Amino acid sequence: MTLLTSFDTPITAVLVGASGGIGRALLEALLADERVARVHALSRSAPADAEALQAQQGDRLTLESIDLTDESSMAAAAEQLKDTAPQLVLVATGLLHTDGHPPEKSWRALNADYFHQQMQINALAPALLAKHLIPLLPRNQRAVFAALSARVGSIGDNHLGGWYSYRASKAALNMLLRCTAIEAKRRWPQLVVAGLHPGTVDTPLSQPFQARVPEGKLFTPAFAAESLLQVVDGLSPEQSGQVFAWDGQRITP
Length: 253
Hints:
Layout: E1 11-16, H1 21-32, E2 36-43, H2 50-57, E3 61-65, H3 71-80, E4 88-91, H4 112-133, E5 143-148, H5 164-184, E6 191-197, E7 200-201, E8 218-219, H6 221-234, E9 243-245, E10 250-251
Parallel strand pairs: 1-2, 1-4, 2-3, 4-5, 5-6, 6-9, 7-8
Antiparallel strand pairs: 9-10
Helix pairs in contact: 1-6, 3-4, 4-5
């Protein structure tokens, strides 16, 4: 199976958030792609089956730890990757709710610590990863840096309100990706920087809110991962700085 037909081979991919629900599915999809020669998987904690994965994949898979609240950890990870020349970087991380802090239904529920956590993980961390990882990408061939965003980060599409911190963090991420795309184009003309909306995926992140999901709109992680890789494969440099849903549709700012 191959989902990444637009990249030069052999493909080296970096996946941040490989132990999460969507991240793990992306890891499996990348490893199943015959054109992907190497995957560097970074996550806060190692997958439960890390030893079995490593034994199965050998040198094709590298598992490393990373702390998205510590820029020095991101810089150290980039240093380890400096000789790998990846063509694809996927940031599959995100925070929606924590113990005792569901998404806010009203401004009365705003909490400074929760807001800062959302901004740290959902907006600042991907931007810092771009800072440290984009310089590793090839300048004269196709490359993609993509991070998971969300439709609720669209200001124009917000007709319901609520979810203050999560919406704000994803809107901030979308702006950071846009700024990054504009700056990076000067030195990486074939680079695509994009946000990706996976839809509502059956993971612990969405579990408390699945009862309100319309029939047929709750996706498996495997479906979301394959859909997102197909979207990534079809993006052109002219589309850099935009956000796209799992079905390839552009999401308005």
